[in-house]
């Protein structure tokens, strides 16, 4: 009598970001059964999220559905659920479905790529006053608040009130911060100017507040200086060496004693690991660092748990930054580990990050970048940035639409999406609501 074949190796992937999705795709020809679980039904191309928040792109162009991405991969399925805990001895993950149903998901190999969340440096109460930019909901809220501020300025009856509504601040001088500040300035000076009658949107002020001594701290110094100059040419007031110590509906208090008046504040000052990192660390008997990231072995496994890998923003590994290319490479490395184990071959060497460079866009025809020791800026950097980002977008349709929208924005000075949402997250907080 013919015996039943052995069941396929079960790979459970937590998180549909860059790390999780690239791990799943790299296992498409492996003899495994993949389950990818995420609390959102879409992958999010976070490097372009700021363009959703400033109206250049729509949500669908940066957030393809996970089921659509994996529809042709027969060995993969997608579950919409929120992971709540880990039982590593039983090789099971606890999750909750959208209707509250409790799920127990078994695995032979577990790859956890739960990503990161916003770090308000111990001031979580600032979140309602200064939305961050980590999700589609965040992008919609930022867009609504920025556009609503111009609407409120148009309605203002006095000069002081009008000027108050036209003051914006971005906290954080990393790539997301400078890209946001540059785009808000461009929105005010180019896109919106012909649309209003009672105000000149070009008089809007944008402040960029950075706690460190320079913007773009991880870039070579000449590119940091170039970025600061380009921001200044766009009318952005760059404040460095000035950490935020207080926040209310009228602006920011800085540790220097200065105050930045701004009724619209956007937070881009840093990230910390998903809370799932701490839960996994507790289950594995390991530790997290000060940013909440899991301590992992050089091959991305957990100590004493070779069947569990942690990748992306939630894994702490020396010399590996929390950027999308690192998560992609770690996802492929995790998949390679699974394939080699199943083939009975020696496991891969420790993960080695290949730093292909850094890029940041500041505004129209303004960008900085470095790759393999070569520095470039201006239009060349912008073209390289565009090619790289289009290359990594999921789907040819999204790539074509994105390039078309970029060209339209440059030529027609218009934005694809300028809808103001409703609800508390989209509203501008009042002074009374902001103060205790």
Secondary structure layout plus pairing:
Layout: E1 9-14, H1 18-26, E2 32-38, H2 49-53, H3 59-62, H4 66-69, E3 76-80, E4 82-87, E5 92-96, E6 102-106, E7 109-112, E8 116-118, H5 136-155, H6 159-165, E9 167-171, H7 175-191, E10 205-209, H8 221-233, E11 236-239, E12 244-248, E13 251-254, E14 259-261, E15 264-267, E16 271-273, H9 275-284, E17 294-295, E18 301-302, E19 305-310, E20 315-316, H10 324-342, E21 358-363, E22 366-371, E23 374-377, H11 378-392, H12 396-412, H13 431-434
Give a description of the structure.
The chain has 436 residues and is an alpha/beta fold. Among the domains are: 9-39 and 81-118 and 272-342, 3-Layer(bba) Sandwich (FAD/NAD(P)-binding domain), CATH 3.50.50.60; 124-269 and 420-434, FAD/NAD(P)-binding domain, CATH 3.50.50.100. Helices cover 33% and strands 23% of the residues. The protein is built from 13 helices and 23 strands. The strands form seven sheets. It has a six-stranded mixed sheet with strand order 3-2-1-7-19-18, with helices on one face. It has a four-stranded parallel sheet with strand order 11-10-9-15. α1 packs parallel to α10 (324-342) and α5 (136-155) packs antiparallel against α6. The chain starts with 8 loop residues before the first strand and ends with a helix.
């Amino acid at each position: 009598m013919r015996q039943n074949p052995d069941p396929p190796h079960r790979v459970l992937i937590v998180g549909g970001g860059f790390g999780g999705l690239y791990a799943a795709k790299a296992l498409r020809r492996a003899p495994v059964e993949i389950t990818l679980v995420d609390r959102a039904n879409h992958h999010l191309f976070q490097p372009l999220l700021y363009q959703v928040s400033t109206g250049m792109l729509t949500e669908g162009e940066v957030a393809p559905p996970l089921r659509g991405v994996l529809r042709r991969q027969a060995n993969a399925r997608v579950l919409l659920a929120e992971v709540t805990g880990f039982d590593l001895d039983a090789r099971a993950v606890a999750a909750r479905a959208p209707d509250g149903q409790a799920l127990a998901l078994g695995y032979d190999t577990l790859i956890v790529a739960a990503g990161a969340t916003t770090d308000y440096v111990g001031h979580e109460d600032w979140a309602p006053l200064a939305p961050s930019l980590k999700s589609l909901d965040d992008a919609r809220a930022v867009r609504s608040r920025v556009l609503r501020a111009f609407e409120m300025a148009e309605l203002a009856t006095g000069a002081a009130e009008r000027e108050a509504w036209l003051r914006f601040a971005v906290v954080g001088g990393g790539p997301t911060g400078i890209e946001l500040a540059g785009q808000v300035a461009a929105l005010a000076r180019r896109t919106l100017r012909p649309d209003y009658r009672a105000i000149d949107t070009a008089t809007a002020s944008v402040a960029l507040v950075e706690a460190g001594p320079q913007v773009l701290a991880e870039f070579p110094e000449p590119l940091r200086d170039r970025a600061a100059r380009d921001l200044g040419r766009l009318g952005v007031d760059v404040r460095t060496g000035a950490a935020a110590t207080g926040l209310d509906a009228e602006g920011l208090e800085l540790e220097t004693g200065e105050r930045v008046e701004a009724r619209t504040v956007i937070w881009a000052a840093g990230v910390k690991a998903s809370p799932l990192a701490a839960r996994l660390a507790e289950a594995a008997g390991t530790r997290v660092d000060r940013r909440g990231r899991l301590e992992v072995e050089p091959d991305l496994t957990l100590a004493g748990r070779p069947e569990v890998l942690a990748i992306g923003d939630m894994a702490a590994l020396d010399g590996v930054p929390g950027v999308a290319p690192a998560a992609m490479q770690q996802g492929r490395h995790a998949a390679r580990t699974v394939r080699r184990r199943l083939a009975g071959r020696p496991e891969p060497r420790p993960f080695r990050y290949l730093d292909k460079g850094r890029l940041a866009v500041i505004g129209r025809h303004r960008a900085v970048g470095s790759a393999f020791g070569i520095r470039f800026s201006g239009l060349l950097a912008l073209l390289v940035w565009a090619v790289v980002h289009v290359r990594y977008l999921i789907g040819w349709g999204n790539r074509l639409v994105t390039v078309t929208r970029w060209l339209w924005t440059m030529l027609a000075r218009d934005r694809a999406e300028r809808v103001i949402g409703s609800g508390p997250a989209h509203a501008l907080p009042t002074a009374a609501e902001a103060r205790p």
